[in-house]
Amino acid sequence: MTDQRARAGTALPIIRSIFAVVAGFATVVILSTGTDQIMHALGVIPPGSMWNPWHNALALAYRCLFTIAGGYVTAKLAPRSPMAHVLVLALLGIAGGVAGVVTTAGLNLGPRWYPIALAVTAFPCVWFGGWLYQRARGRR
Fold first, then answer.
1. Greatest extent of the chain over all pairs of C-alpha atoms, in Å
2. pTM of the predicted protein model
């Protein structure tokens, strides 16, 4: 029985680590898509292709804020080494951003700078969220 408890004890931090990163990712995705829907419903940003630079800038701005929040959530939920968990989320964000750049190429959905900006801002925004958590907790 003690062997099972020992294995369960070592698995728990791994599960909590995965949960921290998934929760940060979910924070970004849920807040971003939810805000998109609200913006569409209010007529602020029309659904479909976005060619108006102001619409793109607004969407980029709130996505950056939500990405910062995702980094903060990941750091807060990390069982240990919050910034290591933030690094994992940031790398996933870069991978997702690059995938977005590649998959939207040639689809004429909007200006090319927008998905590129999402990919470029992923890492610094997630990192800043983790840094804010560390600062709030009084750690360096």
1. 63
2. 0.90
